[in-house]
Design goal:
The protein has about 40 residues and is an all-alpha fold. It is rod-shaped. The chain starts with 9 loop residues before the first helix and ends in a 7-residue tail after the last helix. This is Solute carrier family 2, facilitated glucose transporter member 4. It comes from Liparis tanakae. Keywords: Sugar transport, Transport.
Length: about 40
């Protein structure tokens, strides 16, 4: 088998960046909504 050339295209990098930032935002906002608060 010949070794395959691995290259990152702009579309692939954009997709990876969008997926990572989206998951971080969802986790952050879920943490904010579920933050414990003092019940008065």
């Amino acid at each position: 088998m010949a070794p395959q050339e691995s290259r990152l295209t702009a579309t692939l990098l954009t997709s990876i960046l969008a997926a990572v930032l989206g998951s971080l935002q969802i986790g952050y906002h879920t943490g904010n909504v579920n933050a414990p608060a003092k019940v008065s």
